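Quick one, probably user error.
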């Protein structure tokens, strides 16, 4: 029988943040034997929640997950664009984030990332789901990301984009991207994407990738208008091992 320890790993940071024991699957494909081993491993370690990311074309695994009480909580869409794909005119002020921007960036993050699988799940505290992204953008400014760029209007940050550059590979990925809800519809999101593209091009960076939730149709539309194309679609499942509603 397959060893469950080969199929799963515990996630200490997620567990500490949400206050429940969390693990994720290391595999993306299952059969009856490996699924049983995975669930037994979780039970033996008193795991509360297991994340599983399944390719869109793994129909047999998806059926098995449904039979074993996994909940489909999100569609993970990966998009990519080549260097120089968005080199139009920039309007407005964009600059690197500073630590002085953190309170405003946290405020934006607290209300801007509610299309994610954590909110959809329904078993996580909504306030902690919001705080996850506020913590993420704060850590990004403090060095977790290679760059955090903000849109500045009248001296205040009204949007952000964080970038992680893999210098040896000459690629980058977008971590977090949001605009203050009071400033949406003014071209700020497109401006941040364009500024990032031009900055990365100047640094010799090639392709840039981003992951977003399939239900975030506004972001999907914006990314595609900025030269991104879909490169992968996968499905997020969560499996809880006790009833969180009680």
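Nope, works fine. Designed sequence:
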């Amino acid at each position: 029988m397959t060893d469950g320890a080969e199929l799963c790993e515990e996630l200490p940071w997620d567990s500490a943040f949400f206050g429940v024991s969390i693990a994720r699957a290391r595999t993306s494909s299952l059969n009856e034997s490996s699924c049983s081993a995975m669930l037994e491993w979780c039970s033996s370690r008193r795991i509360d929640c297991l994340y599983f990311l399944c390719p869109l074309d793994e129909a047999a695994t998806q059926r098995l997950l449904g039979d074993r009480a996994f909940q489909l909580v999100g569609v993970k869409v990966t998009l990519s664009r080549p260097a120089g794909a968005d080199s139009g005119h920039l309007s407005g002020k964009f600059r690197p984030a500073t630590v002085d921007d953190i309170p405003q960036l946290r405020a934006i993050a607290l209300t801007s990332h509610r299309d994610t699988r954590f909110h959809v799940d329904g078993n996580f505290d909504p306030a902690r789901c919001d705080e996850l992204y506020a913590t993420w953008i704060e850590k990004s400014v403090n060095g977790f990301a290679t760059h955090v760029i903000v849109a500045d209007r009248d001296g205040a940050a009204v949007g952000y984009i964080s970038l992680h550059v893999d210098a040896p590979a000459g690629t980058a990925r977008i971590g977090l991207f949001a605009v203050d809800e009071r400033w949406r519809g003014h071209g700020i999101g497109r401006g941040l994407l364009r500024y990032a593209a031009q900055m990365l091009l100047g640094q010799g960076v090639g392709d840039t990738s981003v992951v977003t939730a399939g239900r975030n149709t506004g972001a999907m539309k914006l990314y595609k208008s900025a030269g991104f194309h879909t490169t992968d679609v996968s499905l997020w499942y969560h499996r809880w091992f006790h009833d969180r509603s009680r």
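The mean pLDDT is 94.
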